[in-house]
Each structure stands twice: as structure tokens, then as C-alpha cells.
Design a protein that fits this description.
single chain; Glucose Oxidase, domain 1; 2 domains; 7-stranded mixed sheet; 9 helices; globular
Length: 304
């Protein structure tokens, strides 16, 4: 089991944040709209130019994206870093990131989806907490209050998260370090130095736009690799826009995930408001949480 993670300093109003691309680029209108929303909450935003300078679908070449991240990490005025959007590409440049700079001056790394590769590396290389959260590409479509909650968490608040139970849940209570993120990206680092030790963890998984048989294969991969045997609970976020073939796979997303988890005898909860959805609540990865799953409602609270 990995040692307890440490937490970057809380933000204060007036701090400067960085916007950077580790995967896809973002259009200028989306970028400036997101910047204005953050500034309205009392923060300054520094946008790296590479965010809007595409190389194919990426925000620059792998070298350019890593250079942009490293410039932000070595800028003493930058207190947190938001990846502007996901898609794909973080795993291509993660080994060029200056983790020594983060070790010297830990700051918040924020995002979800493809940013899962960054989150995993922060856990394994530094034991540093990070924020699984909405990214600038989605700020305009978030449900009311979600962006404000994201910044309240960055400022040190740890709200109790209550959410509805579903027929797919398995009741119980478990405590452990919150790890994970996007299932596809998590699988992409399996077997590498960046796959986190999930012993005793509460594992978060979410995904989007996958064929059901892909989802089934990923779940069975984690099972056969005995990753799922190590966790104390599973928190399932959005399983969004899942696809099927003309001949149906036979199980829906929740049913096939439940089929893999049920023999483990651990609590798990579905439909946590996180991931590729308008209610993408922030979660502090690396923090110790308690998940309480009951037929009357579910609750996630921080205990460190």
C-alpha cells in the first residue's frame, strides 16, 4: 500500500491559475469563456499559447505540450494547473513532465478523463493529491454550483457528497484512499510505473463513448490482474453514451460492471455525479474518504 498522500496548499482568491493542454487543443472562444468564468470567481488565469495552436488534434507536439506544462510548473506565480480538455494525448507526454518541479513546489493539477494518466503519475511518483474535476472545455455547460464547488474544494473545503442510491448498488461502508478516474485511461497505464497501488483504495471509475464489450473487457482485465481484489470499494461515475452493435452485447453498462464487482463482496455505488456529464462534482484524488452505500441513499465524505 502506498503511504498517505500529501496535499497542495489551498488556493486563495487572487491566486493565479494556469490553463494548459496535455491532450487536445481548445478553441479560442471556449478558452476565453472559461477564463472569464474563473476570473469572475476572483482568480487570475494565465493561458499557455499552445492551448490554441493545434498539431493534428493535440495542443502542440508531445515535446511542446510537455514544455508548456513544465513552464507552468516552474512559474512560482502559478498555484494550480487546469488541463483545458481531454480526448487523448497525456500518456504520450507524461514522461517528459518535470515532476521534480512538482516535488519542490506541489500545486493542484485539475481535470478528468485523459488527465487520469497525470493523476496516476502524481500518486505513484510523488504521493500528491490532485483534483478530479471539470475542465475549461466544459465550464460553460456545468450545472449551477459545480464550478463554485470546484473552487471551494481548491480553497480547502471538503463537502460531504450525498447522491441517490440505484438498484445496481451493493450496500456497505468502506474507507480508503480515493484513486482512479477514467477507466480506459487507467487501463492504458496498467503495468507501467504509473499504475497506482490500489490496496485498500476506494476506486473511482467512469467512462464515455465506449462499446459495451470494450467496457466488459476492461472490467475483466482489472479483475484478472487482481486489481479489483485489492480495493475496499468502487465508486462508479458516469457511464455515458455507451454504444452497442446491431447484435446486442446482452448486458447494459451497469449490469456488466456489477457482474464483475459482485463476487468481490465489497460495497459499490453507481451513478456518482462525476465524469462526462453536466454535474461533474470535484473529487480529491489521493485523499482518504469513507463511502457509505445504503438503499436509502449514498454518501461520500473525507476523513483526512
Amino acid at each position: 500500500m502506498m503511504p498517505a498522500a500529501h496535499c497542495p496548499e489551498p488556493l486563495k482568491r487572487g491566486d493565479t491559475l494556469g490553463f494548459v493542454a496535455t491532450a487536445r487543443f481548445l478553441s479560442e472562444p471556449e478558452l476565453w469563456s472559461a477564463k472569464a468564468r474563473v476570473e469572475a470567481l476572483g482568480f487570475h488565469v494565465r493561458v499557455h499559447p499552445s492551448c490554441t495552436q493545434p498539431f493534428h488534434q493535440f495542443g502542440g507536439t508531445d515535446i511542446e505540450r510537455a514544455k508548456a506544462v513544465n513552464e507552468m510548473l516552474n512559474d512560482p506565480e502559478i498555484k494550480a494547473l487546469f488541463v483545458v480538455r481531454g480526448g487523448y494525448g497525456t500518456v504520450r507526454m507524461i514522461d517528459q513532465v518535470d515532476f521534480d518541479a512538482l516535488a519542490r513546489r506541489p500545486i493542484w493539477i485539475c481535470g478528468y478523463s485523459d488527465v487520469t494518466a497525470f493523476h496516476a503519475a502524481l500518486q505513484t511518483r510523488l504521493g500528491l493529491m490532485s483534483l478530479h474535476s471539470a475542465m475549461p472545455v466544459g465550464f460553460a455547460t456545468l450545472e449551477p454550483g459545480v464550478l463554485e464547488q470546484t473552487f471551494s474544494v481548491l480553497q480547502g473545503e471538503r463537502p460531504v457528497q450525498e447522491f441517490a442510491s440505484t438498484p445496481w448498488d451493493a450496500s456497505g461502508t468502506a474507507r480508503g484512499r480515493l484513486l482512479g478516474g477514467n477507466l480506459s485511461v487507467l487501463l492504458s497505464v496498467l503495468g507501467s510505473r504509473d499504475f497506482p497501488d490500489c490496496t485498500g483504495a476506494v476506486l473511482l471509475i467512469e467512462d464515455v463513448d465506449e462499446y459495451l464489450y470494450h467496457l466488459d473487457r476492461m472490467m475483466h482485465t482489472l479483475f484478472r490482474a487482481r486489481v479489483l481484489h485489492k480495493v475496499r470499494a468502487v465508486l462508479v461515475g458516469g457511464l455515458t453514451q455507451m454504444k452497442d452493435h446491431e447484435i446486442p452485447f446482452g448486458w447494459g453498462a451497469e449490469a456488466l460492471v456489477r457482474e464483475v464487482l459482485l463476487p468481490l463482496g465489497i460495497p459499490f455505488a453507481f451513478d456518482y455525479p462525476s465524469g462526462h456529464r453536466s454535474e461533474n462534482r470535484p473529487l480529491v484524488l489521493g485523499a482518504t474518504v469513507e463511502l457509505d452505500v445504503t438503499p436509502l441513499g449514498n454518501r461520500l465524505r473525507y476523513v483526512d
